[in-house]
Amino acid sequence: MNIVVLNSSPRKDGTITHILKGITSGIAKEYNIEWINLYDYSIKPCTACMKCRPDDECILPEDGGQIIGRKIRDADGLIIGTPTHWGNMSALLKSLFDRNMTAFIGEKTNGMPFPRQKGKPAIIVTACTAPWPFNFITTQSRGAASAVHRILHSDGYKLLGKIIKPGTNKKPQIPQSLLNKAKVLGGKL
Ligand SMILES: Cc1cc2nc3c(=O)[nH]c(=O)nc-3n(C[C@H](O)[C@H](O)[C@H](O)COP(=O)(O)O)c2cc1C
Questions:
Q1: I need a surface site. Which of 148, 167, 169, 184 has the fewest CB within 10 A?
Q2: What confidence tens digit (pLDDT) does each residue in 44-76 have?
């Protein structure tokens, strides 16, 4: 099993990074884990040319968009961490998804989309400064997690679970109980 861990936080020592490490600590030793720090890559925005539909891959000059898209497309499972930015996923993660529409969702000849990642396991991690219950009520971390989930669902991924850490401004420490939950989730892959 090849698992991609996609850290889409610009902070390499932030909350998302630590929770992702918690998840990987629970993954079976024989699995191959590829950790990707998304913000190490340059990803140009999608130009909405729609050429990826007939061509099956983005036609823009090669950058992190195609490189990471192929890694995710070929992996057996995906763990995505995103900070909550404006009640949504981080900007570069959205660009990555935009640039890889057909890697995840194909199109049948009758124009109907189909999920290309059907049945592959996925985990979503997010964090935000809004404290509980405002992170949920005002769709802060809830907005980020559900935006990522919507895309993964369209791709056919099977969501094993979500880990959410609210209130990171006033309570930056990650409770051991949350790290334990992350480890258990990693073991389900
Ligand atoms: C551009 C930007 C937008 C943000 N938007 C929100 C937001 O909408 N709601 C919120 O509660 N926190 C927001 N935050 C705070 C981050 O979600 C929070 O600091 C989170 O813990 C970052 O996780 P990280 O340290 O792993 O990157 C924002 C931070 C940045 C930099």
A1: 169
A2: 999 999 888 776 789 999 999 999 999 999 999
